[in-house]
Amino acid sequence: MFLKTITLLLAAASLSLQLPIQKRALSAGPVITSNFPDPAFLQLDGTYYAFSTTAGGLNIPMATSPDFSSWTVTGTDALPTLPSWGTGPTWAPDVSQLDDGTFVMYFAAVSTSDTSKHCVGTATSNTVTGPYTPSDTPFACPLDQGGAIDAAGFRDSDGTRYVVYKIDANSLGGGGICGNGDESHDTPLTLQQVGADGVTPVGSATTILSRGPADGPLIEAPSLVKAADGTYVLFFSSNCYNGPDYDVSYATAPSVTGPYTKSGAALLVSGDDGGMLNSPGGASVGIGGTQLVFHSDSVASNAAVRQMWTAGITISGTTVAIS
User: Fold this and answer.
1) What CATH number is associated with residue 275?
2) For residues 124 and 127, what is the distance between their CA atoms, to the nearest angstrom?
3) What confidence tens digit (pLDDT) does each residue in 270-287 have?
4) Is 109 helix (H, G, I), strand (E, B) or coil?
5) pTM for the complete prediction?
6) CB–CB of 26/36 below 8 Å?
7) What whole-number distance in Å separates Cα of residue 51 and Cα of residue 169?
8) Smallest Cα–Cα separation from 221: which of 62, 93, 111?
9) How many structural domains are present in the chain?
10) Which residues are catalytic?
11) Any residues with CB less than 8 A from the CB of 288 and at least 6 apart, and which?
C-alpha cells in the first residue's frame, strides 16, 4: 500500500451568506492512495482513526494518523466477523464513542434473506481499533423499501444521540447507473434517535432530506454535525458514485429534525482542486465541524480505486466552505 504525506493549504476565509462557495486547493493529493472508499474518522487522545468500506480483503480496513495529514493503513480488520444476518462486502462504516467510553460501529452488509439489498448493522468494542463484535439483529433493514445503507452516528449538544442513514430505494430498480434512472423512487435520508448505547431506537425514524431532480438517481452518505452557532449541517452525496456527477453537497437546518435546506451549489465536484478530484463523495465530517474526509476516484469515472482525501472546512451560518 502506498502512503503519501500531504500538507493542507489553509486560506483564511469568512464567507457571508450571500457569497457563493469559493473553491480552494485542498492539498497536494490524496492522503491514502490505495483503495479506501467511503471513509469515516474520529479523533481520540491525539490520534485520528479512519475506517472504510471493504477493501484489500478486509471487511472494514483501518488507518491512523497523528496529525490528519500523514496516514498509515494498519492492515488489520476492525470487523473480522460478520453478523448472522449479513454477508460482505460491507459498506460505509462509521464509529462513535459512547459516553461510557466504549465504541459503536455502524455499517451496511448484504442481507442474507435478499442479497440484492443491504441492511444497516451495529457492532461494539471496548477499544477504538476493535475488533468490533456485531449484533445479530440489524439496526435498520426495510427490505420492502430497498434496504438501508450509509449510517452515521451523531451526538447533539444536549447529549441526545441519533443515527442518520439512507433508505436504499435505488436498489429497487429503474434503469441507468446506480438504478432509479427513471427517478421513480425517493432515496430519503432518515434520522433515528437512539439511546445512550447508540443502538436502541427511541421513537420512530424521521425523513429529513429527500432526493430532488437535480440530485439524479439518489442522495446518500449522510454525515451530520452541529455548528458553533447551533446550525445543523447535513453533508451528503448526490448522483451515482461511479459517474462524473458524484459530489459532496450539504443542507442546513435550525433543528436536528429539519427542515433542511439544500445549498445552491455542491461543496466538492469533479474537477476541483486543479482538476485532481474525480467523483468526490462519501464524506464524513468531524465532531467539531472543521475537518472532512472523503474519497475521490484515482482515475476519472473509475471507482475501482477510491482514495481518501482530507479537507479543512469552515461553517458560517448556512454556508460551508473549504478552508
Assistant:
1) 2.115.10.20
2) 9
3) 999 999 999 999 999 999
4) strand
5) 0.91
6) no
7) 25
8) 93
9) 1
10) 38, 220
11) 225
